[in-house]
Recover the amino acids of this structure.
């Protein structure tokens, strides 16, 4: 399955959480997210 196929089954909130979770893991944004720039 493609990434779009997988995320299509998720709600918008779940897609957002997945996106920001991946972004934090990739870019090490844990410190940034704690400042409120990104949703939890």
């Amino acid at each position: 399955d493609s990434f779009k196929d997988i995320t299509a089954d998720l709600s918008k909130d779940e897609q957002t959480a997945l996106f920001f979770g991946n972004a934090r893991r990739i870019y090490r944004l844990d410190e940034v997210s704690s400042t409120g720039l990104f949703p939890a």
In short: The mean pLDDT is 71. The helical segments are 3-8, 12-27, 30-33. The two ends are 27 Å apart (CA to CA). The chain has one domain: 3-33.
